[in-house]
Amino acid sequence: MNTKAKILIGEDNEADVILFKKCMGDTEEFGFELIVAKDGEAVLKAIEASWEEGERESERVGLVLLDLNMPKLSGHEVLRSIKSDPRSRQTPVIIITSSDDASDIKQAYDNHCNCYIQKPSDLQGFRELCQTVKEFWCDMVRLPT
């Protein structure tokens, strides 16, 4: 991933947003910017705005961490919209949600999520999740530009 890309967190639970921010640590160290959207419509607006703001990859959302249970538009609806738009369909979307329901998992993969993770229930779990996201998606993975 371009290390200057933006990471968009689609999460309506303020406590989880705080945990993500705390556990992602110093984003400057990794060269990315965290953006938070607290409902499904705001997620889509943030992605659209990142395309309108600039043509360089570094100005676009490069990774989406998305909860399924959000107001206005569900995570499933947001995922379908992201993956159906030619401009954003290659943007990786990681579903991070409390749901372990088999139908949610199947629907998310049917709609082309890149990864489905059940949300950790404790601080240590969040730390491990964020470290894994940073190491894998920000350091190891090469994505199309």
Protein described:
The chain is of the alpha/beta class and 145 residues long. The chain has helices spanning 14-24, 27-30, 40-53, 75-84, 102-110, 123-140; strands at 6-10, 33-37, 61-66, 93-97, 115-118. Helix 1 (14-24) crosses helix 6 (123-140) and helix 3 (40-53) packs parallel to helix 4 (75-84). Helix 5 links the parallel strand 4 (93-97) and strand 5. Strands 2-1-3-4-5 form a 5-stranded parallel sheet, with helices on both faces. The termini are close together. The mean pLDDT is 87.
Across the major sheet, the strand order is 2-1-3-4-5
Relative strand content: 15-25%
Distance between the ends: 9 Å
**Contiguous runs where pLDDT drops below 50 for at least 5 residues:** none
Radius of gyration: 14 Å
The pLDDT mean sits at 87
How do the SSEs run, as a string of H and E? EHHEHEHEHEH
Measured as a percent range, the helix fraction is: 40-55%
Number of helices: 6
Structural class: alpha/beta
- Estimate the global geometry from the Cα principal axes: globular
Please provide the count of β strands. 5
Major sheet characteristics: 5 strands, parallel
